[in-house]
Amino acid sequence: MDRIGDFNMKDDDANDDDDSRPIIHSVGGEEPSILTSNFFLDHVGEVFLTLKPDGLSWKLMDSLCNDNEDRSTCLGIQFLSKQDTSINISDVYAVEFIDWGLVHKTLLTNPGFLLGHASEMYRFTVHGIERSKSQPSLWAPTVFTFAHVDKQTCQMWANRMNSYLSLETDRPRNLLVYVNPGSGKGNGCRTWESVAPIFSQAKVKTKVIVTERAGHARDAMASITNRELNLYDGIVAVGGDGFFNEILNGILLPRHRAPYPPTPPDDDPTIETESDVLLHDPTVTIVDPTVPNDDESPLLKRSTLNESQAVNLNQDSEMSFPNERFRFGLIPSGSTDAIVICTTGVRDPMTSALQIILGKRVCLDIAQVVKWEKSHTSKNKPHVRYAASFAGYGFYGDVITESEKYRWMGPKRYDYAGTKVFLRHRSYEAKVAYMKAESEKTNVGANARRIKAFWGLTKESERIACRAKCDICNTTSVAPQREKPDPKQESNWVRVKGRFLSIGAAVISCRNDKAPDGLVVDAHLSDGFLHLVLIKECPRAFYLWHLTQLARKGGTPLNFDFVEHHKTTTFTFTSSGEESVWNVDGEILQARKLSAQVFRGLISLFASGPETYKTHFADFIQEPASIINNVYPFSLFFFNVILNSFRYYNSLPPVAKTYATICFFMSLCSELNLYSPWTVALSYEDVFKHFQIWRLVTNFIFLGSFSLTFAFRLFIILKYGVQLERGPFDKRTADYVWMFFFGAFSLLAISVIPFLRSPFMGASLVFMIVYVWGREFPNTRINIYGLVELKGFYLPWAMVALDLVFGDTLMPSLLGIGVGHLYYFLTVLHPLAGGTDFCKTPFWVHKLVKYWGRGYQMNSPVKKADPSTGVAFQGRSYRVGGTSSASTRYPPNVGAFNGRSRRMDTSS
Ligand SMILES: Nc1ncnc2c1ncn2[C@@H]1O[C@H](COP(=O)(O)OP(=O)(O)OP(=O)(O)O)[C@@H](O)[C@H]1O
């Protein structure tokens, strides 16, 4: 077996007898800080490697690549992933010496030094992270394998790197991991299994506990002693926001000590202040920090907190916490995962795992939500909850309550429950009082905000989203505590009373898949504010508009007159009528009276914050629609709707478009009483006796008066009819038109039998489309009302079943299926089995289409087909007067329809 033994040192300093030995630079003392040597980088080639305390870098010793050349071009496509030439120690999570073994030769044809060399050496691997170029927040593990013929050299480099890694003291060594097996789609365990190997690679010890029931983790956290907790550098939750909340509460409830926020005023208008609560309400059960804890660990005592901890944990609060290194980790596996998206920038278990292993840290504000209730001993007995992301009432509470009934649906339950609750459109009477934050300006009205935004006058600070190394979070967390407004002073409070669709308090922006910018785009991870969003009662359409803005990237969900957004530190709430519930981080809290306050940077998370996040000001300015939106919101809403509808309509293919348009206008005219539907219905008597032959056609184009059934039929044409025309009937306009003619003729023939006759056969024709679509797209997955998923093949039958359930007549659907099957049999199945094609598109249909001038004309060039379209009708195009058009998709002489094209200038 060959060995590489002739590394060439190209550095002038590396003028050693044995080129393969590392050069050691001693800088400023005994400890050599720089190592250099030649190594073989697996899959790349020979490199000159340099190790410094802050990182490893290398230079490809490829004589063919000059330094000015673009390495990626030079190295070729195989090496794109290995074009890095350095990695910081802070991005490395493991270095391992691995024994003698295979290294892969580069595929470069470089006769200078790569070809002909041996392929086995001693190796050490460097495991680090790679940031996605397009989405820097997304991290993936990467590995570099360096090889050398000398074992000692390899070992020495690996040891040196490991010694540098050991200086990274902020990294966890020992973690307690809780896995919720039922989170999200029930894949908590799989999520953990997918990331567990990198924890062992990084030599991070993990004690993994899979929960057995709801509340398991909270109970465990509440009962674990601080001494035991102190053995760990953090707790990692593998699950969703609700599961994280459970662990957070398990940790904080017995340990966090701070005065409660003021109770909401009863009928008495004076607000009770913190001290009022403490002094006058004997029932408030604040844990006395002076009461000795069973646990003897000195770290638990507040007096032992050093200054930095005190700043970190917020000076308002008093908290016994195990150790300074302690952080929370969250590996996303839930249905929403807003906390992970806000703290890492992406919803990716691997990114979260890597950020935990590399010991990243961000501080997170925590809201303390206190529910006050009457007990037999007290007027106001507090029940405390902590929230890391959001507490919401009304719509938010109703959605979470409704969604709990459909947990079996997985994450889809939120869509379903959201739609139901939206349709209910309930508002709730409530009183809200919030403390004015010193930085909040007078309440700028929505119109003024809109105009300011339009002219670019909105202050940058009002729009800056939180990001990694966020200035707002960092400056505020180290700056002296803001002077808090005195809660005793009535002038520091603002009171709002009315009917609200929802009341929300966002601790962080709450970005998630459904709201890409979150509810409050500029809510920061540790800005020390609660962002109170009050949505007053408004028409359903306006609320829908708010929701669509929420669902849109760059949307402005808070720029409405019925929406108020206030930055505050404390607020109180009292329900004064019909009640909803509170949704605290996805968990239900029933409270008639509630108050909340925020603790700035109360906990630390293993996360680095989202990478640079683009504000949407530029988008806003560029998009003309958005400009109008902010000046003439109402007109733009309709303008947008009309514009998008127009665009959509224009994009429709001709046959489906024409059929849908005619049907729509037929129903519209009937609605306007311009004619009676009975004058267009099928009646053979009128056709033959009174020569009302139009009835033979018009009965197919009246789909009913405006109703849900009509909308559904139109939807079928626009969805399935369009898919057929764009797919299997692509470039075969005449064939598609013929399908409709065939259906109509067949239905007319069938309706000669009185029992099977129906005055309007349009519904059957539409159903025929569904049947043919089902045969053409048999494996496409269909979701019915978000409840059942089935294959396209079964769609017509599922629709028949629905007709049955809703008590609709089955005849039109069954006739449509029958005719659809007849068509499919004659045009596809029978010819495929070697039979004669009885159902060829007649020549007059081609002529008609030519005369019509829409779609693909006779003699038009046959374009290359889209391979993703349907299968059965491939190759059945007719090139009239052109060369034979065998399948445009199948190779010659393969498939059912080869040779069935015909030339107009010859007989078929
Ligand atoms: N073993 C278990 N069996 C049943 N429920 C559990 C179990 N472990 C935890 N839970 C509960 O499951 C609830 C939801 O968990 P989680 O937050 O992980 O998922 P999710 O609700 O799908 O996601 P999200 O909160 O992001 O919407 C939590 O309230 C938690 O108490």
Automatic annotation (TrEMBL):
One of its GO terms (cellular component) is membrane. Residues 1-12 have a biased composition (Basic and acidic residues). It is found in: Membrane. It is a multi-pass membrane protein. SUPFAM superfamilies: NAD kinase/diacylglycerol kinase-like (SSF111331), Rhomboid-like (SSF144091). Residues 1-21, 882-908 are annotated as: Disordered. One of its GO terms (biological process) is ceramide metabolic process. GO terms for molecular function: ceramide kinase activity. Pfam families: CERK_C (PF19280), DAGK_cat (PF00781), DER1 (PF04511). Residues 170-373 form the DAGKc domain. The chain crosses the membrane at residues 631-649, 656-676, 696-716, 736-753, 759-774. Keywords: Membrane, Transmembrane, Transmembrane helix. May be involved in the degradation process of specific misfolded endoplasmic reticulum (ER) luminal proteins. This is DAGKc domain-containing protein. The lineage of its organism: Eukaryota, Viridiplantae, Streptophyta, Embryophyta, Tracheophyta.
